[in-house]
Each structure stands twice: as structure tokens, then as C-alpha cells.
Amino acid sequence: MADESNGSLASNLWIRRSEMRDASQLMELDALVWDSRTSPSPIAWTSREQYLQKCPPGSQLVAGIDDLICGYLGFSTPSAMASQRHVYELHVAIHPSYRRLGIGSKLMATMKELAAEEGIRKLCLRVLSTNPCAIAFYEHCGFITQGRLIAEYCIDGEYVDDILMWYPLIR
């Protein structure tokens, strides 16, 4: 699939906010990416309507090449409280065939710019301790650990920590 050189990929890559027409590809990407190593519970959308209710258009940055969505970065405030409106909680998914090509880094850089423009002061995310590649990626993007929920989940008989990471937008 991703047999292009990294330079060629970069020139063909586009990033934009999600749209209604993206739902099917994003649902397929979720089914491909989120498993017991990356999520406490597999994501299984029962319908397009359910997906769109949870992930409305505009709530994700999507990256693609031609008509194919290769990854996304979802963002939302962690709660409805006014006191938490300065925070975006993130989740990132990259198609396995397009990993390690810089797509996640480009999505994260775009997210940092967008969030700063919107007055967001803090980006945060959660990552399972069983996902060392994701942890390394987030650290590469400047995220730091702010906490660790020890043995928060029991996945496939193994106790797994939930690592909380953050990135300050205004220093």
C-alpha cells in the first residue's frame, strides 16, 4: 500500500477536519487499529449513526492520500464543565500500512496549531502501557507523563497501566 518514498508521500498528503462523507473509512480504520494492545475495549460501531453521534464531523483531523484516509487525530474537551474548556483530549489512529511515514507527526503538528488558535492551553491523552510504540511517538511529539493509573485494566488476563500524558500549549 504505502510503497511511495517518504518525500513523495509528504507532497501527496492532505490534512483537514473530518466530514460526514468520511464516516465509513473512519469506522473501518477504528476496527483495524483499536485492539487489546491499544485500547481497554475494542471499538465496535454498530451503525454509521452511532459513529457520527460519538464522532461528529469536525471533531477529528483526518490525513489522507488521494481518496484514502490514512489516519486521524480526534479531539474533544474531556467534560462539559466550563472549567475544563481549555483542554483537548486526543486520540490518534494511523492505518498500519502507513505508520512510520510521518503522518502522525504531521497530524500532531496541525493539531497543536489548531488548538493554539482556538485558545486551548493543554493537550492530553491516555495510552496503555502495552503500547510502547505509541508512548515513544507521544514523547517524540513533546508529551510528558503526568500520571499513571497502575493496573487500571485487566486485558486478556494481564493487568495494564493507563498512562496519562500532556503537552502544554502555552508555556
What does the secondary structure layout of this molecule look like, with pairings?
Layout lengths: L5 H7 E5 L5 H11 L14 H7 L5 E6 L2 E9 L10 E8 L8 H15 L4 E7 L3 H9 L3 E12 L2 E11 L3
Parallel strand pairs: 4-5
Antiparallel strand pairs: 1-2, 2-3, 3-4, 5-7, 6-7
InterPro entries: Acyl_CoA_acyltransferase, Bact_Acetyltransf, GNAT_dom
Organism: Paenibacillus lentus
Protein name: GNAT family N-acetyltransferase
Q: Structurally, how many domains make up the residues? A: 1
Strand order of the largest sheet: 1-2-3-4-5-7-6
Name the CATH superfamily assignment: Gcn5-related N-acetyltransferase (GNAT)
Q: How large is the count of helical segments?
A: 5
CATH class: Alpha Beta
Shape-level CATH architecture: 3-Layer(aba) Sandwich
| Average pLDDT | 93
CATH topology name, in short, is Aminopeptidase
Strand content: 25-35%
Describe the 3D structure.
With 171 residues, this protein is of the alpha+beta class. The chain has 5 helices and 7 strands. It has a 7-stranded mixed sheet, with helices on both faces. Helix 4 links the parallel strand 4 (87-94) and strand 5. Mean pLDDT is 93; it is low at 1-6. It holds the Pfam family Acetyltransf_1.
